[in-house]
Amino acid sequence: MKIKIDRLKEGDNQIRFEEDSIMSLNIEDYEIVSGTGLTLNVIRNNSYLHITGSNNITVKEYCDRCGDEYTPDIEIEIDYVFHLGDEKRGNSDNLEIIRPEENDGYLIFDQYYIETFYLSLPLKKLCSGSCKGLCSQCGKNLNEGPCTCSKDETIDPRWEKLAEIAKKQK
After folding, report:
1. Residue 125 CA: distances (Å) to CA of 32, 112, 136
2. What is the domain extent for residue 108?
3. Quick one: how many helices (H) and strands (E) in the chain?
4. Residues 56, 100: one domain?
5. Partner of 88 at 20 to 30 A CA spacing, among 2, 68, 142, 163?
6. Do 105 and 141 belong to one domain?
């Protein structure tokens, strides 16, 4: 996904990337199943670019509790501010500084989209909010039904006395 900087006029601009551009991205450890096109709103003000936009993609994922494969929809919300030129004029802590001459006048947006994708991922990947996970003794997927393991938990011998105290208090 390339943005030709010198073609951007002062003020508001819109750039559209089709679904194929999103699907062709190489996102490490993730397979994109489907996605929507991406429309970026680019505001050019002197030597600054403010780029915003959003789209949805569906990826192949594995549940953290049960290990089953599922395909969540992930909303990508893009919001970047770029400074064109040297570091002297911009505060490098708040802005991404780009030099258009380094890429033949293009801003290569792939890496920024991928970065936003990773930041959009949920911290805990669950196939559903009610996922029961796996049995800690036999490993059966409890979403498919109960297992035949004994319901009595085996207690670590170091914690037996504490378990006895807890039973007495009930």
Report:
1. 16, 23, 19
2. 2-120
3. 3, 9
4. yes
5. 2
6. no
Q: Does some domain include residue 126?
A: no
Q: What is the pLDDT of residues 77-129, one digit of tens each?
A: 999 888 876 655 545 555 566 665 566 778 888 888 889 999 999 999 999 98
Tell whether 106 and 59 lie within a shared domain.
yes
Residue 52 and residue 81 share a domain = yes
Residues 58 and 113 occupy one common structural domain:
yes
Q: Is residue 125 part of a domain?
A: no
Quick: pLDDT tens for 58-86: 999 999 999 999 999 999 999 988 887 66
In a domain, 65, yes or no: yes
Distance separating alpha carbons of residues 42 and 4, to the nearest angstrom: 11
Helix, strand or coil, per DSSP, at residue 124: coil
CB 30 within 8 A of CB 46: no
Give the whole-number percent of the chain exceeding pLDDT 70.
86
Query: Which residue in this structure is represented by tokens 């109960």?
Result: 146
The tokens 């601009």 sit on which residue?
13
Bridge partners, 3 (sequence order): 107
Query: What share of the chain in percent tops pLDDT 90?
Result: 19
Domain check: are 146 and 104 in the same one?
Answer: no
